[in-house]
């Protein structure tokens, strides 16, 4: 992988922040966008912009082709069987809420169980809490091992005949761990439960095949994988999506409307009420082309190497705690240095042009499990280099000296 050539395609990376060349290590929150994606969105607005599925005029059909063409790219990217199984959403959060509000509320009742893990992002936690409150179902958690991983024996113990839904993140946005979602899906199915996968942190970084995983639903966000904000998708097995009721009603999603009754369009449009995020879908299609050209396997290997190098360099810093195991992880390294608050670490790093995330990362239950109120997180993507890791490690050494009193 020619990272120098890849970096050339990201205009934002070539600037100084606070007098230093930018080192962007916050891609798990949101990735940067390559020129091809920026151009595709601009070209769409300059040449093709119109509403979709309505106009008979040329721009209307160009916009519709661009929007539906992007859906086909997502289908192929995830290896879904049909474009009817790809619902465009605002992102992972909206996709998971759609499953919770439409599917889960209709199948869960008193005595039923929904199985999660304590490492879930709030987006894959709170929608299920709301379902539990509304239906009388109970939430159950697969316990974590001391290093944050989950064991299949524990999955077997947690899932039973009362389980209706199992929802697990493929990759942890804090620990960088890749969870065995394919094996969990098989266990869920043996008990008649449905498997939901939060793919926010997996889709950008590794090859995903929803048919191989045999998950029932899969959610992801475009902005973490080089696409614009405001676009993502929900994959769902066709038979399940067909059973489900829409949760948003209005234009675009109807077949026939009468004064007292209406009927819905077929899949996937019945779930896409209102004018959709057309330019976002165009940008997502361009991002998929960009990632496919480089190769998801190459991206994954590059990030594995970078995070192993980062783990090695950061472990050498006195007083540092790195969370999660040093194996089977994507490009995410989460840490604390002594008693220094991670916001202070991130602020000092910013003065040196280095962008990392600090906070609870939308994982408050996991933070409590880690016994940390917050952490700092460096996350890598295809445009990061060993030099970025060196800059981070060197700056952290200086941070440690700066805050030496708190590290002891
Ligand atoms: N799930 C995980 C694991 C995430 O990391 C994130 C975002 O950080 C989300 C869900 C929510 O994604 P979005 O804010 O794009 O809906």
TrEMBL record:
Protein keywords: Pyridoxal phosphate, Transferase
Domain of life: Bacteria
Record-linked Pfam families: Aminotran_5 (PF00266)
Catalytic activity: (sulfur carrier)-H + L-cysteine = (sulfur carrier)-SH + L-alanine
Cofactor(s) listed: pyridoxal 5'-phosphate
Entry-linked PANTHER family: CYSTEINE DESULFURASE, CYSTEINE DESULFURASE 1, CHLOROPLASTIC
The protein's name: Cysteine desulfurase
Organism: Paenibacillus mendelii
Upper lineage: Bacteria, Bacillati, Bacillota, Bacilli, Bacillales
């Amino acid at each position: 992988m020619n990272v120098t050539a890849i970096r050339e395609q990201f205009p934002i990376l070539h600037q100084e922040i606070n007098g230093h060349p930018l080192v962007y290590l916050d891609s798990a929150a949101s990735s940067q966008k390559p020129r091809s994606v920026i151009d595709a969105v601009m070209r769409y607005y300059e040449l093709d912009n119109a509403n979709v599925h309505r106009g008979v005029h040329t721009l209307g059909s160009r916009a519709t082709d661009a929007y539906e063409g992007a859906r086909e790219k997502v289908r192929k990217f995830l290896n879904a069987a049909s474009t009817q199984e790809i619902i465009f959403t605002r992102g992972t959060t909206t996709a998971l809420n759609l499953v919770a509000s439409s599917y889960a509320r209709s199948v869960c009742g008193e005595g039923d169980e929904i199985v999660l893990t304590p490492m879930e992002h709030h987006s894959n936690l709170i929608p299920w809490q709301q379902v539990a409150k509304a239906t009388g179902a109970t939430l159950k958690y697969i316990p974590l091992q001391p290093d944050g991983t989950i064991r299949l024996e524990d999955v077997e113990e947690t899932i039973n005949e009362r389980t209706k839904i199992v929802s697990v993140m493929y990759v942890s946005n804090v620990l960088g761990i890749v969870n065995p979602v394919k094996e969990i899906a098989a266990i869920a199915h043996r008990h008649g439960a449905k498997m939901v996968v939060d793919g926010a942190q997996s889709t950008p970084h590794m090859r995903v095949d929803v048919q191989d995983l045999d998950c029932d639903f899969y959610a992801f966000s475009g902005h973490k994988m080089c696409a614009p904000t405001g676009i993502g998708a929900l994959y769902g097995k066709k038979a399940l999506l067909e059973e489900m009721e829409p949760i948003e009603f209005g234009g675009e999603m109807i077949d026939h409307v009468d004064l007292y009754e209406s009927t819905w369009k077929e899949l996937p449009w019945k779930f896409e009420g209102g004018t959709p995020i057309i330019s976002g879908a165009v940008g997502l299609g361009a991002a998929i082309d960009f990632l496919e050209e480089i190769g998801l396997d190459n991206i994954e290997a590059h990030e594995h190497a970078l995070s192993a190098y980062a783990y090695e360099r950061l472990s050498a810093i006195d007083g540092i705690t790195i969370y999660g195991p040093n194996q089977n992880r994507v490009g995410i390294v989460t840490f604390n240095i002594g008693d220094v608050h991670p916001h202070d670490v991130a602020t000092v790093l910013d003065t040196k042009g280095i962008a990392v995330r600090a906070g609870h990362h939308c994982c408050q239950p996991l933070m409590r499990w880690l016994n940390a109120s917050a952490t700092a997180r460096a996350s890598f993507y295809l445009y990061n280099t060993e030099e970025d890791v060196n800059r981070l490690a060197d700056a952290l050494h200086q941070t440690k000296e700066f805050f030496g009193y708190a590290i002891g």
